[in-house]
Amino acid sequence: MNLFREPRILYIAPDGFPDYQCDALLHGLKSLLGDRVVDAFPAWYLYKPTARNAGEFGKLYGKGFTLYGLLDFDATIDRSDIVGKIRARYFDLIIYGAIHRSQQFLFEVLSNYPEERICFIDGEDETRLFPFVVGRGRYFKRELTESHAGLRTELGILPIGFGIPREKIVSAIPAKTRVMAHIDPRDRKTYIYDSEADYYQGYRQSCFGITTKKAGWDTLRHYEILANGCMPLFLDLPEMPSTVMTHYPKLQMLWAFEYLAAESTKGAKLPNDEYQFQLGAALETFRQQCTTEAVAQYLLSVCER
Question: What is the pTM of this model?
Answer without folding.
Answer: 0.93
